[in-house]
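Q: Please design a sequence for this.
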């Protein structure tokens, strides 16, 4: 058996078993080469619908389609071997009814071969989460700031900064957990609320702009690498790849303009 065949992909159950244990490292991934790099360090690769903004230059995630998600997710599966690949259900593909959600989530699972899907929403989506899980589709929940609701929320605003909002957000996380989600993303919520929810729910919480006390963390890969422009306050830059790429392109352009590229070592000599 080759060493490649021995690597087992993590499953949704493996992730659930990490509640209050070893922190769950998650990054978004949208392409095969980045997935291959991230796979060496991550437990979960999230094919987030943030790809609409990060890769396709959209203003929000609202216009992302199921076809876009499937195409990117297939690339991420091809690039990775160990991490659990979770695919975001895009806006409009699951909210109408549990039946609509099942049809589209089943298509994602079938065409991508991923291990789970993610959908946004708390109490109102709990029946749908239960419907999917009971029919064999592992679901990651997502509460707090839910970017697909940007037009209702009036922008990408942190949630729960006012204590009066805490019971509703806490109830959202509890409903998702009780419906059978294997983990839940807490996005852009007040830090003490994230601590409280993490202590209260039985499934792992994956924080983004939440708290270091969450059971795991997720960041948009391109943001933390410094490849995107303006990033939210909660993003920490772990690399300066934007600057490095800019310098590489400037060096290339200078060599082309000076007719120094391709030089010796990068051209083919005649053999006979
Ligand atoms: O779409 C996405 O990348 C996400 C993460 C930010 C959690 O949902």
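A: Design:
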């Amino acid at each position: 058996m080759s060493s490649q065949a021995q690597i087992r992909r993590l499953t949704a159950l493996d992730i659930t078993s990490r509640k209050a244990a070893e922190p769950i490292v998650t990054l978004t991934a949208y392409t095969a080469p980045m997935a291959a790099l991230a796979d060496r360090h991550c437990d979960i690769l999230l094919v987030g619908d943030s790809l609409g903004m990060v890769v396709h230059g959209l203003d929000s995630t609202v216009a992302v389609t199921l076809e876009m998600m499937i195409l990117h997710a297939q690339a991420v599966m091809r690039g990775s071997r160990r991490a659990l690949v979770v695919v975001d259900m895009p806006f409009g593909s699951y909210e109408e009814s549990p039946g609509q959600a099942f049809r589209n989530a089943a298509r994602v699972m079938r065409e991508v071969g991923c291990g789970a899907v993610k959908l946004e929403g708390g109490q109102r989506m709990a029946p749908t989460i239960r419907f999917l899980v009971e029919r064999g589709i592992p679901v990651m929940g997502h509460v707090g700031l839910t970017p697909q609701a940007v037009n209702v929320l009036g922008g990408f605003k942190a949630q729960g900064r006012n204590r009066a909002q805490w019971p509703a957000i806490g109830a959202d996380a509890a409903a998702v957990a009780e419906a059978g989600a294997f983990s839940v993303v807490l996005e852009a919520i007040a830090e003490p609320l994230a601590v409280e929810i993490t202590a209260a729910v039985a499934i792992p919480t994956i924080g983004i702009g939440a708290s270091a006390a969450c059971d795991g963390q997720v960041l948009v890969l391109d943001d933390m690498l410094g490849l995107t422009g303006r990033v939210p306050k909660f993003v920490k830059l772990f690399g300066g790849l934007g600057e490095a790429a800019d310098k590489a392109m400037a060096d290339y352009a200078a060599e082309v303009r000076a007719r120094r590229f391709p030089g010796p070592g990068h051209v083919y000599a005649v053999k006979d």
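Q: Thanks. Anything notable?
A: The chain has twelve helices and eight strands. The first strand starts at residue 24 and ends at 28.
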